[in-house]
Amino acid sequence: MAGAAAVWRISPELLTALAQRLGEPLDSYVNGTQTWLTSDGPNGATLEWRLHPVASYRAPASISHYELWEQVIAQLPGPVRFGDESRRLETLWDGLECFPAYGEDVEPAPLAHAATATLAIAPDASGMVDHENIGEQWERTNGSISIVDTLFDELRT
Q1: Cα angle for residues 117, 17, 153 (degrees, 5° grid)
Q2: For 6-18, how does the pLDDT look when each residue is reduced to its tens digit (9 = 90+)?
């Protein structure tokens, strides 16, 4: 089933905006995903903000997934040091996606407008995507595809 999405490519400016405007993630996952929820969507819709890990994500060895966000934000614009390891942002996350959290019926243009108002950075693309299909592809490949690239592919068609 298709739903609206707004998508940004990773950048230090994007992470700074997330930190300043949304604060600490609501949840951090072992696979590198960071998530936030806000209630500032069109018509009061709850929006989920999901920072997607790169394809075949490999976590830094010296920290837990709960410490990842804090370590990165403290060292922007990067590269980021984790013990003896140095990583560029692009080796951690591909980009950010914003979408209605609970399957609420939101059109792409109002979603993009609300997301821009929240972050003060316009998305690189927005439109309708098939989240179920993208999730199945990611699961089927054991995370070896980029969710962000797949989102952009769907938004171009």
Answers
A1: 75
A2: 999 999 999 999 9
DSSP bridge pairs for 35:
27, 50
Pair 22, 49: CB distance under 8 Å: yes
| Cα atoms in the Cβ-side hemisphere of radius 13 Å centred on 138 | 20
Please, how many CA atoms are within 13 Å of residue 2, restricted to the half-sphere of its CB? Answer: 11
What CA–CA distance (Å, rounded) separates 111 from 100? 8
Strand, coil or helix: 86? strand
CA 48 – CA 26 distance, rounded (Å): 10
- Partners of 25 in the β-ladder: none
Answer positive or negative: Cα dihedral of 73, 75, 76, 79: negative
The pLDDT tens digits of the residues spanning 122-145 come to: 999 999 999 999 999 999 999 999
